[in-house]
Amino acid sequence: MVVGEKQVALVTGASSGIGRATARAFAKAGYTTVLADVHEQEGSDAAAECTREGATCRFIQCDVSNETSVKSLMSEIVSSFGRLDAAFNNAGIEGAQAATAECATDNFDRVVGVNLRGVFFCMREELRQMVKQDGGGAIVNCSSVAGLVGFAGIPAYVASKHGVVGLTRNAALEYAQQKIRVNAVCPGAIETPMLERLMSGGVPRESVVATEPVGRLGTPEEIAAAVLWLCNPAASFVTGQALAVDGGWTAR
């Protein structure tokens, strides 16, 4: 039996990068997969790509920083499919680079609004649905290695991703008795549009690769594999963890 058969998964920030790869992995595993993103055309294209894996896939436009939009997303999922078994709260932005003393208030608010408030809004609705289900569920939040250590020049991003780890651990304790597991993945340097923007801003690719003990960048598919494992019954004793998928970067 396919692990995801008759189960429903949600991926936010699903139009590109890690989110798109994870949605495709859920679909390939047999999950009915809901792709959510603020970008309608790219999200629809990603859903069509996932459908080719043979699973039921649907795109729903959503701005995770908007509470009403998130509530509407969950309402549509439940009305269409009746349940939610797995969720990957991945939507995020990097914001502008600047030292803490130079970080603009609107930049800080925007990054925290998407990366932290967005995860909170999504997780709150997911938990409310999952507590109604006999089988519980599994939630994975996308943090970052920047949620485990500091990175000079991106204070809003670092603060938001540390907050995601805190939310993850807190919810894991609160809902463990209700068969809901909550974990986070903390990607390192992954080949994504976000990393491309960073490198186009003056950070040489060679210098990024040089920081990786394994000598290469990671792929979105490698993060997707970690997310699927955390949502799998094989990880049934794993909750409240912030899993670094970073090529050994945080081991130093």
TrEMBL record:
Keywords: Oxidoreductase. Signal peptide: none annotated. Gene3D superfamilies: NAD(P)-binding Rossmann-like Domain. It comes from the Bacteria. Belongs to the short-chain dehydrogenases/reductases (SDR) family. This is SDR family oxidoreductase. It comes from Sphingomonas limnosediminicola.
